[in-house]
Specification:
- It is a single chain.
- The protein is α/β, with parallel strands linked by helices and 380 residues long.
- It is 36% helix and 21% strand.
- It has 11 helices and 13 strands.
- The strands form 4 sheets. A 6-stranded mixed sheet has the order 7-6-5-9-12-13, sandwiched between helices.
- Helix 1 packs across helix 3, helix 4 crosses helix 6 and helix 6 packs parallel to helix 11.
- It is flat, with a radius of gyration of 27 Å.
- It starts with 19 loop residues before the first helix and ends in a 9-residue tail after the last helix.
Length: 380
Amino acid sequence: MSFYEYSKWDGSQEFQPQSADKAFDQLSEYLLQHGEQVLRNLDEFEEDEIPDLLQQIEKQGLIEQDDEGKWQVSPKGLRRIQESALSNLFQTFQRDAVGKHDTPQKGEGTVRLDDSRPYVYGDSLANLDLHETLKNGLVRQGGGSPIHLRYEDYVVHDTEFQSRCSTVVLIDMSGSMGRYGKYAMTKKVAMALQAMVRAQYSQDTLQMVGFYTYANRITERELLNSAPKPVSLFDSHVRMRFDLDNPPKRVPEHFTNIHAGLRLARGLLSRQGAQNKQIIVITDGEPTAHLEGREVVLIYPPSEKSASHTLAEVRRCAAAGIRVSSFALIEDYFYLGLVNFVEEMARVSQGVAAYCSADDLGSYVFDSFIGGRRSRRMSR
């Protein structure tokens, strides 16, 4: 049963038929599904026609107008969307599965564990277990004070080393990603990762790359505003080649160029100094495009040629010490070729391959992200 409490309105309360936060959350869902077009629809309002609720969202600092008067999500609003995505995803799988990144390499900091062990020359006394150390000295001398400590009395807390990790998430923006809610869920997972890295792994770097006919690095706001590339070519067989430096005026952008995405990601990671590096690929299709020098080659149906160029780049990533995890979004039985391809990517790179529905993508990607930090190593 619902209970309501009434009081006399004294004129000081501000009437809000719907909270600005709730309205913004609904707007965010539309942005995740449809991209920037949602904001462009808001631009159609004249200055004196802006709805009160939109003004309330602006007053809360969640949206703002840029120098050209166009609506955009503010930095505060972007953080809210990312944190909401993270919170919503953790409702579907165990949060305690996500912890600090561990590594076999000595990093820039340590985490103190509950376990203790005898002191070894070179251990930091900052990790001294004072209680156990004093107890050892007291027991050895048979009680009394003062306690005279010896080398063998000292005990330190066990620690595990942590290192930084640089991650690039490759997001498929090809035309087919618009079906079954795949692209909206991919954006949500990517934005949740951004929130988690900011909150828990502040020393890490996380970059996003969208791949389609081309591949481009995308910012946090560009990710939120993005949408799959519309299909503009419906031929059953396609064989096209064009120069990157002098492309034709009309280029079909809805193809799947994983090769270009991997190459760009490898270049971005080569400039990072982190000990651990990883690429997470989210796709729903086999490669239908690849690079040959400064040329883009489009081939449909998917060909062995595009696959071989892509797998060669996977090997280059592995040779550079980059962990490659590939996630195939599977919605029906037509995706057998994609399953085989991501498994081949895992084989040549000794990496990770998985196939799942859009609803399960979050748990798979988060597990892989954490696993990319290697196994922990205790201090000596």
